[in-house]
Amino acid sequence: MDLGISGKCALVCAASRGLGRGCAEALAAEGVDLVINARGAEALEATAEAIRAAHGVQVRTVAADITTEDGRAAVLAACAQIDILVTNAGGPPPGLWSDWERADFIAALDANMLTPIALMKALLPGMIARGWGRVVNITSGSVKAPIPQLGLSNSARAGLTGYVAGTARQVAGKGVIINNLLPGIHDTDRAASLDAAKAKAEGVSVPEARAGREASIPAGRYGTAAEFGAACAFLCSQHAGFIVGQNLLLDGGAINATL
């Protein structure tokens, strides 16, 4: 299927590895030029070179912390015109409700709620003026089924979901479509970190911890960055114009819910 977005330009955050890279790769395969961001310059440049070689698109890199004002300013300064925005930032650390103080919540909100909102506020006006745009926010399956040890993430991502629910409906009539992708467990560095935390808490090996988590997924495995990226690319396509303000769960069936 031709997604109809060749020649567009996308900003993909946290794109040097994991789900962000999966999204960048899938968009590049459709002929989309990229501005990609991550904190680590070396990994980011390696990713950019691999994407250029594989897909022949233009890829600009900005090594910066997207969760800071200076980082966002640097990224936005590199963007002459952005048609597609994919927001993404690493989740806050797991813990217990008694572990977290106000500063922990503020940091989580800055990274996983206020940063995507700031990027949307900066880029939506241009999309509206051109009459076309796509935004995909990578949030978490915890929006639909909160994960006890991820209370910081649960809180921040739920706030972003509420913001998108209203904003998406305000801009859809102007050709700008906003949706959220909710990953379950995918084979990324974040999953490895959570596997290690589970192993430590339960006194088992990391492979045993992973096997236990895989057993909780009806698909029987972790997701891949490539299949996540394919879903992202479709939501960014010309065919997704009637999908507005939705939360698409990609979790292998792990959350057992009718809706």
Give a written overview of the molecule.
The structure is a single chain. The chain has 259 residues and is an alpha/beta fold. Helix content is 47%, strand content 14%. Helix 1 (18-29) links the parallel strand 1 (9-12) and strand 2. The two termini are 28 Å apart. The protein is globular. Strands 3-2-1-4-5-6-7 form a seven-stranded parallel beta sheet, with helices on both faces. The model has no long low-confidence stretch (mean pLDDT 96). Helix 1 packs parallel to helix 2 and helix 4 packs parallel to helix 5 (151-171).
Order of neighbouring strands in the sheet with most strands:
3-2-1-4-5-6-7
Structural class call reads: alpha/beta
What letter string, H or E per element, gives the SSE order?
EHEHEHEHEHEHHHE
Helix content range = 40-55%
Strand content: 5-15%
The quaternary organization reads as: single chain
N-to-C terminal Cα separation, in Å?
Answer: 28 Å
| Gross geometry | globular
Number of contiguous helices: 8
Name the average pLDDT: 96
State the major sheet: 7 strands, parallel
Low-confidence stretches: none
* Backbone CA Rg: 18 Å
Give the beta-strand count: 7
Can you give me a brief rundown of this structure?
The chain has 259 residues and is α/β, with parallel strands linked by helices. It has helices spanning 18-29, 41-55, 69-77, 102-130, 151-171, 189-202, 206-215, 225-235; strands at residues 9-12, 33-38, 59-63, 84-87, 133-138, 176-183, 247-250.
